[in-house]
Amino acid sequence: MPQKFNYIDFSNSITSMPRKSASLSKDRYISNEFMELEWEGIWTKTWLFAGIVSDLAEVGDFFVYDIGRESIVVTRNEEMKISAFYNVCQHRGNKIVTIESGSFNKVSCPYHGWTYSLNGRLEHVPDRELFEGGVPCEKHSLKPVRVSIWAGLIFINMDEKSSSLETFLGPIIDQLKPYKFEKMNLVKHQTVSLLETNWKTVRDNFLEQYHVDFIHPQHASFVDCCDAENDLWPFGHTRTMVTSPVVNPRYSMPDEPPEFMQDYLRGLRLNPDDFHGKVPEIRKAIQKQKRIIGKELGFDFSEFSDDQVSDVLQYDIFPNIFMTIHPERLWIFGPKPHKSDPNKCSFTKWSFQIPSELVRDEKKGLELLPGSSYYDQTGFRPEHDIFTREDVVEGRKSFTITIDQDIHYLNDMQAGMHSKGFDSALLSKDEERLQHFHDWVDDWIRKDSLWSSLD
Ligand code: FES
Ligand SMILES: [Fe+2]
Question: What is the pTM of this model?
Answer without folding.
Answer: 0.96
